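Q: Predict the assembly, please.
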Amino acid sequence: MFVERVGRLIAGEPGPLYRQLERKLCDAIDARILAPGEALPPERDLAAAYHVSRVTVRKAIDGLVDARLLTRRRGAGTYVAAPIEKNFANLSSFTEDMEGRGRTPSSSWITRGTGIVTPEEALALGLSPGSAVTRLSRVRHADGISMAIEQSSIPADILPSADAVGASLYATLGAARPVRVLQRLRAVLLDAEEIALLGIDGPAAGLLIERRGFAASGRAVEFARSLYRGDGYDIVSELGGS
Ligand code: 16G
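A: Predicted assembly structure:
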């Protein structure tokens, strides 16, 4: 059925077979015959269905993974890419962002706890040395797919324990959540630990956002490092307008 949807390869057409297969898949993705998020059949099934070698299938898929039209999930196969459109200039939480796009957010904890501020946290949060902060470190998922690694430090008098945080940090902070942020963004190459936490194949690029969030009172309430996977997001912004 897959071959009927995507189209057959034409014998005798010039150029390598993998290019022809790559083009067919690309056209089917463009025309939404293959839907965002849809799983491709395993390589061996595609090779059998198209009467080509697995090497040919792999080369065609590699080209489309490089072009970000397909994504490979370790141990789970190949999927049509479904990047999240994110406006990094807004103040929404990860949970709100995902729910607004009809995706189901979830998180897995890496670490959480309360400790004494590091000099960097003290500076970012305007705290005196020796003050306590609560730290959370989470892998964030959309529909079970890893999207980002997020680390947040919150003054402990605002969030005494990370155990109070359920699905959403900002929901827990309530009226103390940030309403203004200062942030810097930078492209990074993910290290081996980050690749393992996200469960993706390396080498991979990411977008690192460092944020200081201020509550309505003007107080710095969050110092956060969010590492977004490069193939998971399209950055969008609206400029000008009335
Ligand atoms: C966003 C924030 C992050 C915050 C999180 C709270 C950026 C770059 N980062 O991901 O600083 O901790 O939302 O999400 O926007 P939550 O309420 O779902 O836990």
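The beta strands are 70-73, 77-80, 84-86, 105-116, 132-142, 145-155, 180-189, 205-214, 220-229, 233-235. Residues 93-95, 150, 152, 168-171, 209, 211, 222, 224, 226 surround 16G (CB under 6 Å).
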